[in-house]
Amino acid sequence: MKNRLEYKYLVSAAYLDKLRYDLLNYLTPDAYAVLRPGYEYTVRSIYFDSHDYKCYYEKLDGIYTRKKFRIRGYNKYEDSSQIFFEIKRKHENFISKNRARVPYAKLHKVLTDKYVDSHFADEEKMYFDYFYYYYQLRQLEPKVLVVYNREAYECKFGSQLRITFDKDLKSKAVSNIHQLYDEDGLRSAYRREFVLEIKFFQVLPQWIKNVLEKYDLTRLAISKYTSSIDIQHSSSVRANKFNRIASLKRSAA
Questions:
Q1: How far apart are CA 27 and CA 224, in angstroms?
Q2: CATH number at residue 111
Q3: What's the whole-number mean pLDDT along residues 161-170?
Q4: Residue 37 sits in which domain range?
Q5: Do 227 and 189 contact (CB within 8 A), yes or no?
Q6: Domain count, the chain
């Protein structure tokens, strides 16, 4: 998939209606959102990490080239539910994502059965192979379930630009891939804010810059995964983080 830029902003919920009004002159709901009430759907992701939280610390350390691993589903569970194995890659400011679709009913089987070719479309088999390679190499484990409601829009003018409003972010610690559709025990984050994401190629249009300036929005390095880990594992992970920082300082002294 072609690399794109992805800018994120943490915005007061009080601005949601006004910001949407200003942007909708240039946007239309994407093909999936247009089928949903309020042009909104629920995104569910279980993020994987190594036992020592390698992905988490790479984000905190600002490593320029890094990967995140997750399974993703949408809305509520149905017999026909599909999920996606995803690797999201970041290189400096550029983002790319590969995903492989499989029926939810086969989720466990594809991670335990080495004869998985029949479970994927031909063009997606390679993407799952990448995921499975890192799953084995890093001994990845389910760490946290992240759930939020997304309004998704695309540019009316065919520029491949996407804007999403990610609201009501919640999370819970998990240890099992079959917790993807869990609702119990979710804890809220960003209680008075939502995450605005702008995804585009090459140049940010001037009309977006004007709207960002109007609301005095500043681009931030927001990560739903690391924010959720901080909430769910505040004592142990943060303690490890501070010990790690102290160790690095001692080494540099």
A1: 24
A2: 3.20.100.30
A3: 96
A4: 4-252
A5: yes
A6: 1
